[in-house]
Amino acid sequence: MSAPVSRAGMLAIYLCSFLVGCVLMGFEMLGSRYLNPYFGSGIGAWASLISTVLCALAIGYFAGSAIVDRQPTTRTIGTMILIAAAYMALVPATADTVMADILDSIGDGPMATLMASTALLLVPLTLLGTFSPIAVSLLTRSASEAGRVAGLVYGVSTIGNVVGTLITTFALIPTIGSRAITYYFAVALAGCAGILFIPFGKKTS
User: Fold this and answer.
1) CA-CA distance, 81 to 83, in Å (whole number)?
2) Could you tell me which residues come within 8 angstroms of residue 159 by beta carbon, excluding any fewer than 6 positions away?
3) Which of 23, 82, 92, 174 could crosslink 179 through cysteines, CB 3.0-4.6 Å?
4) What is the structure's pLDDT at 69?
5) Any residues with CB less than 8 A from the CB of 141 and at least 6 apart, and which?
6) Which DSSP letter does residue 170 get?
7) What whole-number distance in Å separates Cα of residue 195 and Cα of residue 6?
8) Whether 128 contacts 81, CB under 8 Å
9) How far apart are CA 26 and CA 152, in angstroms?
10) Which positions of the chain have pLDDT values less than 50?
11) CA 101 vs CA 105, 114, 124: distances in Å
């Protein structure tokens, strides 16, 4: 079992669960903007984006479950989030080159849109997907509260998903542009990682 988390640590995990949820779905919406000049924004592009997000989350959940068996800590999930932030920060400068190379090499069919979506989203969203199972492990103190904790973590994360989708689509994209938003998301994730690196101490009775 993981070391007990203090009340401040618990609040930090829930806050980061919300913020990670916001960024995760917000970045999916941005994915459509990066793909659009090269592969369009039709149903095929969205099918590729959604499939990539779901695959990334599935891999992240499996990986997070494996990490749970190896003494998880807030620093562990902080490290995952920080790597995701670093990857995301590279996207604005590299996306056009990657999209153009894929378009030139294999065209604009389903395989190309899947490959482009994978290049954009798979790595950072897989890393973010490890958050929830590890967070549940850190917050659960007994078998009797496991269901309640899991529901809270995934509920808070899902609320973040909704907020991130709506704010990104209706407020951020029309006003500041995809590349700037990507940098802001990377900074937000780095901030979450910084919070999780704080030594909050043990939970007291």
Assistant:
1) 5
2) 18, 21
3) 92
4) 82
5) 4, 203
6) I
7) 14
8) yes
9) 21
10) 1, 204-205
11) 6, 14, 21
Provide the residue type at 55 as one letter: C
Token pair for residue 11?
A: 């609040």
Tokens 């950072």 belong to which residue? 124
Q: For 99-119, b where at least 16 C-beta lie within 10 A, e where not — what string?
A: beebbeeeebeeebbbbbbbb
Give, in order, the Cα–Cα distances in Å from 8 to each of 12, 33, 137, 160, 171.
Answer: 6, 38, 16, 20, 31
Structure tokens at 2: 């993981």
Q: What does the pLDDT read at residue 41?
A: 86
Q: Is the pTM of this model over 0.85?
A: yes
Cα distances (angstroms) measured from residue 37 to each of 6, 34, 47, 97, 149: 48, 7, 17, 12, 42
